[in-house]
Amino acid sequence: MTTRLVPLHCVGLGGRGPEDVVADPGGGVLTGTADGRILRVRGLADPDTARAETLADTGGRPLGLELLPDGGLLVCDAERGLLRVEPSGGAVRVLAGSVAGEPLRFCSNAVALDDGSVYFTVSSRRYPLAQWIGDIAEHTGTGRLLRLPPGGGAPEVLLDGLQFANGIAPSADGGFLVIAETGACRLTRYHLTGPRAGRSEPFAALPGMPDNLWRDRAGGPIWVALAAPRIPPLDLLHRAPAALRRAAARVAVRAPFRPGGTIGVMALDDRGRTVHHLTRRGSGYRMVTSVCAADGHLVLGSLWEPGLAVCAGPGAG
């Protein structure tokens, strides 16, 4: 059942593009902005007293974040690769900057499992972040799922051919991962254990383009940010010959872009069933690329906007 997403207020950050949001144990939210800063935002319930503290600067463009049990922070940086940031002092260390000799670009989202391994996605091997719309139009299928073994080392490619691989989240029992394929409007399951370990399969078809995923370590569903609703002409383009898709991509990366005003978030259980689906039309806050629950609210991030949107939790409104 679809319900209304109820906005409460926005919190400015003094910088654009808080692409991912993750809740921290103190009731605040961590995010990264286009100027390279990693921020901790506290007091989100009141826009007059909310404050953003700069924890670090990656020197690149931070996207997906993952808070580690020891207090460290994994950062997928679209320019520098997979990073570890120490929020207490701001130190930044590159964990993976290349894959098989190829520079790691457009690293998108990461998750750390209990055994110390890190799984992360690469959205496109053909287009940089600044031209992301080109990959969506061309439907390149160059997204990847990678794994960094415990203790570090060289990352290995687990899945190739993904359509703009994006958010990633584990199942409650750690038996599989859920990966967002933005360009295909779907979630994919990758098995980590059991007889199907190492194999993937569809997990859920969605009414829009999924971006970042978030799951509370204490339990609960997988939250999905829908960056845009499904676009029928784009579905049609994706079935066209490759040459036509490439031509469309060349036009797309040069054309002015402004996201639409329909936004949405979903929550799914480990069987791919919808628990919550909240939407809003005519929203002034656009292109929702992330969502998390913090201090009794839903907090939205956006690649487009200059701040965070705070909304009522499920069941309100």
Automatic annotation (TrEMBL):
Pfam families per UniProt: SSL_N (PF20067), Str_synth (PF03088)
Instruction: Please tell me the species this chain comes from.
Output: Streptomyces bungoensis
> Where is each Strictosidine synthase conserved region domain found?
113-194
Q: What is the name of this protein?
A: Strictosidine synthase
GO MF, one term, reads:
hydrolase activity
Is Glycoprotein included in the keywords of this UniProt record? Answer: yes
Q: This protein's superkingdom?
A: Bacteria
Which InterPro entries does the record match to this protein?
A: 6-blade_b-propeller_TolB-like, Strictosidine_synth_cons-reg
Q: Which UniProt keywords apply?
A: Glycoprotein, Phosphoprotein
Q: To which protein family does this belong?
A: Belongs to the strictosidine synthase family.
* UniProt entry tagged with the keyword Glycoprotein: yes
